[in-house]
C-alpha cells in the first residue's frame, strides 16, 4: 500500500520526528511504499496570500475560496501545492505527525492544510442543493483512504482524560479528525497519542516506539472512528442538524456526531 507521512516539528532530533522515523521504518519493512514530507525541512510556506494565485489579476480582490477554485480548475495552483495534492491522491493512507501546541497542530501544518486543501479539491466538491450539501463528511475527493494522527503532548494522560483540566483528548482532536480529515472523505483511525513527551527516557521511548510499530502493522485493519456521514440520513438538509430519530435528544456536542458500531447512540 502507499502511505504519505507529513510531519511538523522544527527540531530534527525531536520526539515527533523520532516516532515518525520509527513508523516509516516499520511501514517500509512491511513493504509499503512510503513518502515523507517534513514541512520544516522543506521550508513550507504556510500563509495563504496572493502568491498562491499567480493568475489572479492585480486589480481583483483576493477572495480565497473563489481564487482557490479558479486556480484548481484551470491548473494554476503553485507547484508546491499541486505536488502535495498529487501526494494525497497517490496515497492510500495519510499520517500526520506533530506536537500538540496550544491545543492544536503547529501553524506550519495548519498552513499546509490551508493551502493544499483547495476549493474543488477538498471542499466545494459535489452537488450543493436543497437536498444535498456537497460531497463531504465521509464523501469527497479523499473518500476510500485512511488517515491517522501521531501526536505528542507534554501533559499527563490524566490532564487529557474525561475530567482532566485540558479537556478530553478526543474533544481536542475532534476539529482535526472530523473537520480536517473526515470532511474531505478520509476514514479516520484512532490517534496514537504520546503523553509527558518532554520527560521521556530511552527505555520509555523504546516501549512507545514498539507500540507505534504495532499500530503501523494494523494500519489497514484498525476500525475507523464511526463518524456519522453527512449524506447517510442522520442529518436534515439544508439545516445540517441531526434528525431527532438519529440520536438521543440529550446527546449534544462532539459525541453526537459519532455512532456506535452496533448502531446505537454513543
From TrEMBL:
Domain Flavodoxin-like fold: residue ranges: 1-205
SUPFAM superfamilies: Flavoproteins
Any GO molecular function: oxidoreductase activity
Keywords, comma-separated and alphabetical: Oxidoreductase
Origin superkingdom: Bacteria
InterPro entries: Flavodoxin_fold (IPR003680), Flavoprotein-like_sf (IPR029039), NAD(P)H_dehydrogenase_qn (IPR051545)
Alphabetical list of Gene3D superfamilies matching this protein: 3.40.50.360
Keyword set includes Oxidoreductase: yes
Record-listed E.C. numbers: 1.-.-.-, 1.6.99.-
Family per record: Belongs to the NAD(P)H dehydrogenase (quinone) family.
Entries under PANTHER family matching the protein: NAD P H OXIDOREDUCTASE-RELATED, NAD(P)H DEHYDROGENASE [QUINONE] 1 ISOFORM 1
Protein name, UniProt field: NAD(P)H-dependent oxidoreductase
Organism (species): Methylorubrum podarium
Amino acid at each position: 500500500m502507499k502511505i504519505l507521512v507529513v510531519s511538523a516539528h522544527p527540531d530534527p532530533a525531536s520526539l515527533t520526528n523520532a516516532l515518525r522515523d520509527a513508523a516509516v521504518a516499520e511501514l517500509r519493512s512491511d513493504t509499503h511504499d512510503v513518502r515523507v514530507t517534513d514541512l520544516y525541512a522543506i521550508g513550507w510556506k504556510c500563509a495563504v496570500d496572493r502568491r498562491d494565485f499567480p493568475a489572479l489579476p492585480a486589480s481583483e480582490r483576493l477572495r480565497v475560496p473563489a481564487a482557490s477554485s479558479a486556480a484548481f480548475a484551470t491548473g494554476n495552483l503553485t507547484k508546491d501545492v499541486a505536488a502535495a495534492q498529487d501526494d494525497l491522491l497517490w496515497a492510500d493512507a495519510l499520517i500526520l505527525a506533530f506536537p500538540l501546541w496550544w491545543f492544536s497542530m503547529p501553524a506550519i501544518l495548519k498552513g499546509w492544510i490551508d493551502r493544499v486543501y483547495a476549493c474543488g479539491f477538498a471542499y466545494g466538491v459535489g452537488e450543493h442543493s436543497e437536498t444535498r450539501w456537497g460531497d463531504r463528511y465521509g464523501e469527497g475527493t479523499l473518500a476510500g483512504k485512511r488517515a491517522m494522527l501521531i501526536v505528542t503532548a507534554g501533559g499527563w494522560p490524566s490532564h487529557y482524560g474525561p475530567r482532566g483540566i485540558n479537556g478530553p483528548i478526543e474533544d481536542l482532536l475532534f476539529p482535526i479528525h472530523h473537520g480536517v480529515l473526515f470532511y474531505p472523505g478520509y476514514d479516520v483511525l484512532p490517534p496514537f497519542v504520546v503523553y509527558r513527551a518532554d520527560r521521556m527516557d530511552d527505555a520509555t521511548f523504546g516501549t512507545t516506539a514498539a507500540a507505534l510499530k504495532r499500530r503501523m502493522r494494523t494500519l489497514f485493519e484498525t476500525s475507523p472512528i464511526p463518524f456519522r456521514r453527512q449524506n447517510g440520513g442522520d442529518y436534515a438538509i439544508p439545516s445540517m442538524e441531526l434528525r431527532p430519530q438519529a440520536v438521543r435528544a440529550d446527546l449534544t456536542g462532539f459525541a453526537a456526531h459519532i455512532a456506535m458500531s452496533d448502531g446505537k447512540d454513543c
